[in-house]
Design the sequence.
């Protein structure tokens, strides 16, 4: 006769549902973005991708806080990320701006999708051997925020697609995001920041100021912030390269 699980077992099982619920919300937001793009509601599609980004950031932290990490959760999270930050942004951008470019439009979207898939595969295989402080290549949520942020910015400010520059800017941004994901540029991961750790009063004040700053004009501010982040990896790479050259010259001088 099978034994009934005790209260502690039931509690542990219910906790494991929590991070996977956030992952499901992430997946739903990505799927919703695709549906809204098909319906011509591109602003809603872009906002949905940003919501997916928020849910994706919460599932891992909730799992660590509640000590409910699992191999199933890691695989489920990767599959959800492929939809929300790989396929969804490329489809939204293609339907919104790049259909008129013909084969160049869908090729740019495909480059982005392939970049997202390779980025996630490399992340999963190198997770134990890379510096925890930095991502190797632009993380897929940030790449999705670049693409979706441009859509949101353009729709919110009523930029006309009849202007020939807009589709080509979308084309260039999509390819950049796709290639940046598979680059070796180091992008700050933020994993050293723990939400369970106490912070000084100025830290809370800074968080409030950032929230107020973003709320003044979300599409402009968010797109600007992710543009800066999307370029930060190259700045860090250039700084490391110059530092390595300086150390090499110093060693040659000492010899």
Sequence:
């Amino acid at each position: 006769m099978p034994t009934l699980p005790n209260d502690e077992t039931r509690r542990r099982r219910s906790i494991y549902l929590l991070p996977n619920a956030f992952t499901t919300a992430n997946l739903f937001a990505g799927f919703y973005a695709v549906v809204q793009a098909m319906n011509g509601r591109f602003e809603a599609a872009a906002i949905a991708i940003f919501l997916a980004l928020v849910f994706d950031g919460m599932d891992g932290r909730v799992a660590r806080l509640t000590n409910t990490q699992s191999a199933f959760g890691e695989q489920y999270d990767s599959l959800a990320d492929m939809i929300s930050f790989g396929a969804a942004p490329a489809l939204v951008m293609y339907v919104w701006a790049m259909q008129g470019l013909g084969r160049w439009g869908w090729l740019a979207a495909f480059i982005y999708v392939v970049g997202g898939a390779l980025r996630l595969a490399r992340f999963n295989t190198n997770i134990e051997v890379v510096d925890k402080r930095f991502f190797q290549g632009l993380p897929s949520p940030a790449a999705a925020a670049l693409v979706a942020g441009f859509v949101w910015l353009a729709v919110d400010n009523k930029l006309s697609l009849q202007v020939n520059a807009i589709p080509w800017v979308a084309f260039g941004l999509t390819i950049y995001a796709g290639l940046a994901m598979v680059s070796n540029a180091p992008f700050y991961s933020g994993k050293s920041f723990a939400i369970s750790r106490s912070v000084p009063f100025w830290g809370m004040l800074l968080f409030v100021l950032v929230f107020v700053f973003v709320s003044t004009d979300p599409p402009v501010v968010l797109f600007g912030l992710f543009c800066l982040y999307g370029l930060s990896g190259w700045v860090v790479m250039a700084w490391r390269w110059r530092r390595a050259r300086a150390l090499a010259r110093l060693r040659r001088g000492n010899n």
About this structure: Confidence is low (pLDDT under 50) at residues 10-14. The two ends are 77 Å apart (CA to CA).
